[in-house]
Amino acid sequence: MDVILLKDVKTLGVEGAVVHVKPGFARNYLLPQGLAAVSTPDRLKSAETAKRRRLEQDRKAREEADALKRRLESRPLTFTLNVGDDGAPFGSVSVHDLADALAREGHPVEKRLIQLEQPLKTLGAFEVAVRLRPDVVATLKVLVMKA
Where do the structural domains in the chain lie, given as residue ranges? Predict the structure, then answer.
């Protein structure tokens, strides 16, 4: 039996895909859960239209992510930390600080997209990955300097 997936199904495929499944699986699981619909010529046509629309939206989102990546990589972010008598800095630069600095520069990025395992607790230059999309990762240059 051919069905059109209405939502992504991990073992079968992505939304809009036409897949061949056993009738019992479609009747007892996919159709009642609202994960698929029986394949008809009208539904195939509308699924193809939805697929083209989704591909266009994905292309636009990728272009926007690439433009944001270029802007993020164009200039470094600079942070200053107070330093004690022994030369050790007080405080650190965290994901929250990076997200706030990016927002102030007009590049609002969600904190969860910034891939910083540990806060930056030393002076120097660092590179921090920002995953804008699964296929677009920007490398953010961060300078931590003495105040």
Answer: 2-61, 66-146
- Residue 3 tokens, joined: 């069905």
Domain 66-146 class, CATH top level = alpha beta
The tens digit of pLDDT for each residue in 3-12 reads 999 999 998 9
Identify the residue with better confidence: 31 or 47.
Answer: 31
- Between strands 77-81 and 136-146, the pairing is parallel
pTM for this predicted structure:
0.73
- The predicted structure's pLDDT at residue 147: 84
User: What is the distance between the alpha carbons of residues 65 and 131, in angstroms, rounded to a whole number?
Assistant: 10
Pick the CATH number of 2-61 from 3.30.40.10, 3.60.21.10, 3.30.230.10, 3.40.5.10: 3.40.5.10
pLDDT bracket for residue 51 (50, 70, 90): confident
2/78 Cα distance (integer angstroms): 57
Spatial contact of 123 and 82, defined as CB atoms under 8 Å apart? no
Q: DSSP letter at 83?
A: B
Q: List CB contacts of 63: < 8 A, sequence separation 6 or more.
A: none
